[in-house]
Amino acid sequence: MNRKKFLSNLGMMGTAAMIAPSMMASSPSVKLINTSGKKIRVGVIGCGSVSAYYLKHLSKCPYAEIVSLCDIIPERAQNRAREYKVNSWYPHIDKMLAGVDFDLFVNLTDMQEHYRLNVIALNSGKHVWSEKPMASTYNEGSELIKLASQKGVRIWGAPVVVNSPQFAFIAKQINEGNFGRISAAHGCYGHLGPSWSSFFYEKLGGSIPDLAVYNITSLTGLLGPAVSVLAMTNIISPTREIDNKGTVKVTEEDNSHILLEHQSGAISHIQSGFNYTMAHSYDSEEISTISIIGTKARMDMIGYDWDPLAVDVATPAIQKMERMATDPGTYVWEEGASVICEFLATGKEPLFSAGHALHAVEIMEASRKSQETGKRIWLKSEFVWPVVT
After folding, report:
1. Do residues 273 and 254 make contact, with C-beta atoms less than 8 angstroms apart?
2. Secondary element (H or E) of residue 184
3. What's the structural domain count of the chain?
4. The pTM is what?
5. To which H or E segment does residue 229 belong?
6. Which residues lie below 8 Å from residue 12, measured CB to CB, with a gap of 6+?
7. Domain containing 318: what range?
8. 67: part of which helix (H) or strand (E)?
9. In sequence order, which residues have a C-beta less than 8 Å from that of residue 264 and are 6 or more positions away?
10. DSSP class of residue 98?
């Protein structure tokens, strides 16, 4: 196929890729909440900076009603409650769960707390939406999914990069064979590191669960589950200056390179770190952070996969990139909890699944094990793929 015909086919497809549900085979069937016109009641724990994005999106979601807020710094919960006119706020999860009833538990706390708090919420019979990662280890993540099934509820985990029109555009071309045989892919995401909290640099923090997780989710979503991991990680900056703590010691990786072997035979490579100059400008329309390479075409995702701007396309016949998929749609990175509210109210299954989130957790854990042992680590988890059909 020449490039003109290739691009013509893409143009006819546009970004309106037909999207099909991606469910983990072991996910329990969920009885929809009989809302009778009422909204899904949402409780949010963790009222720091990320909550500003989530609460704004949830407050505009036609399926959601924010009824409960919680934070271990009570003033933060109180301030958010005042801002979004929420009547009930709490200083501790136990008081939150004993207070006003709600349907969906939204976990926006420090990543080291996600597993512990998710267990408590599931045991209380709540559906759970968790910021990334939903757990720190494969065994913990598997336990969460099993517990959710036992309780007749569901759990999902960020990120939701599979929801973007640019992801759908690339996935559809892969599915239809327009790349030919996929051999390689690359992802890169880094910056100079946050200063507003020390948990990024403490045990079970690090650049892999904070940054690489986006590219891990994107590339496995596009190329399919990985079967093995080989990685190198280290610490470039041994100390960090934190706004409310001063100098802290860095104990988890702030620099990583991860190789993934996918079931198809394709090999992908992911870089992430907290020591990257802002060469990848947040506002740049020229920087690609995801590249997919096949025998018939190459596609580059422009912008970050959590906030993509377009897709550039080239073929062997004419190698100058052509910009496609520039429509942003309604996708935003903070939409996950709102999408779950829509599912609970209507039954519209989301693209992201617990199985995919667990696969990302296992890859992150395996990356660190590979660094520790100097060996390739074989993976156990899978998820239903392709995500987009």
Report:
1. yes
2. strand 182-190
3. 2
4. 0.92
5. strand 226-234
6. none
7. 3-17+162-343+353-378
8. strand 64-70
9. 182, 223, 224
10. H
> In whole angstroms, what is the distance from residue 241 CA to residue 200 CA?
12
The Cα-based distances of 5 to 9, 256, 315, 318 in angstroms read: 6, 40, 11, 12
* pLDDT tens across the length of the chain (389 residues): 444 454 445 444 443 333 333 333 344 556 566 666 789 999 999 999 999 999 999 999 999 999 999 999 999 999 999 999 999 999 999 999 999 999 999 999 999 999 999 999 999 999 999 999 999 999 999 999 999 999 999 999 999 999 999 999 999 999 999 999 999 999 999 999 999 999 999 999 999 999 999 999 999 999 999 999 999 999 999 999 999 999 999 999 999 999 999 999 999 999 999 999 865 555 566 788 999 999 999 999 999 999 999 999 998 877 889 999 999 999 999 999 999 999 999 999 999 999 999 999 999 999 999 999 999 999 999 999 999 98
Does residue 259 sit in the same domain as residue 135? no
**How many CB atoms within 10 Å of residue 298?**
18
Question: Residue 361's closest CA among 113, 123, 157, 200?
Answer: 157
Domain identity same for 127 and 184 = no
Say if 29 falls within a structural domain. Answer: no
